[in-house]
Design a protein that fits this description.
single chain, alpha+beta, endopeptidase fold (from Nostoc punctiforme), 2 domains, 6 strands, elongated
Amino acid sequence: MATRADIIRVAKGEVGYSRWADEENGTKYGRWYAHATGNPMFAASGVPYCDMFVSWVLSTVGIAWRSAYVPGRENEARARGVLISKWDVRPGDAVTFDWQGDGESDHIGIAVTAPYGNKIDTVEGNTSWGYSGSQGNGGVVASKQRDMDDIVWGIRIVDDYAVSRASDGTSNITGIQAAIGSVPDNILGPDTEKRLYAVVAASNWAGNHFPFGVAYTQSIIGTQPDGVWGDASEAAHDRVIASIQRALGVEDDGIWGPTSQAAWERYRRNAKRP
C-alpha cells in the first residue's frame, strides 16, 4: 500500500525537470498521460501539466487517480469525501491554487509538510524556479514554500496517519505515555500533558525552552537532572522524541516538527480525559 512518504519521495525525485530541456514534444508527464488515456492531445507542446504531474506521481506509487484538470480533481475529491480544509493538509496530500483569482482553481501540487504558521512546503509541476515567473505554468518541477493564503483546498490522497484506537474508541495514547514516563492508563491527564509539553518544548522546532526547568525535562528523558542541557541530554531527548513519533505512527527521526505536531493533535482531539 502506498504511503505519504512514498508520494513525497517520488515527487521530490522529479524536482529539476524542465519542459524547456525536454527534447521530445510536450512533457514527460503529458506523454505518459496521453499513453494512459489514449488521447494524444495531452502529449502536445504547451499543454499545462501540473495535474498530470500529480497523476504521474500517484500512478508511480500505485494509486490510480488520473486527472489533467484541477477543478475536475477537486469535484471528484468532493464526491469521494476527501476534499479537505487547507488547514487539515498533511504531508503527501495535494493542495490546489487559484493564481488567476477568478474563483476556479488552476494549479495543484504535493504538500511536503503540514501548515506551519502561515507557510507550507510543496513540490509542484509546471511552476517556475523562483517567485517572479508564472507560478502555474512555468514549465518546471520545483520545491516551493507557499503562503497558506495561496492555497484553496487540500485533497487527501492516502490516510496512513490513522489514529490508534482503544477498545472504547478513544485515542490509544499508552505508547506516548510509556515514552515520557507517565502512568500508561490511556487518560490524557495533567501529568501526561505536562510531561509531553516539557519534552516537545525542548525541541528546536518549539524553541528549545524549558517551561518547568531543565532538570524537570531531564528527569523525563532519563538523564542526570543537573539543570545543565548538554550533549547527553540532547541525545536522550531525541531518543524520547523518536519513541513518541513511533507511538504516533510518523517517521521516527527524533526531530519534532509540523508533521509530528499534527499527528499529536489528531490523537489529542479524541483522547480520554480525567
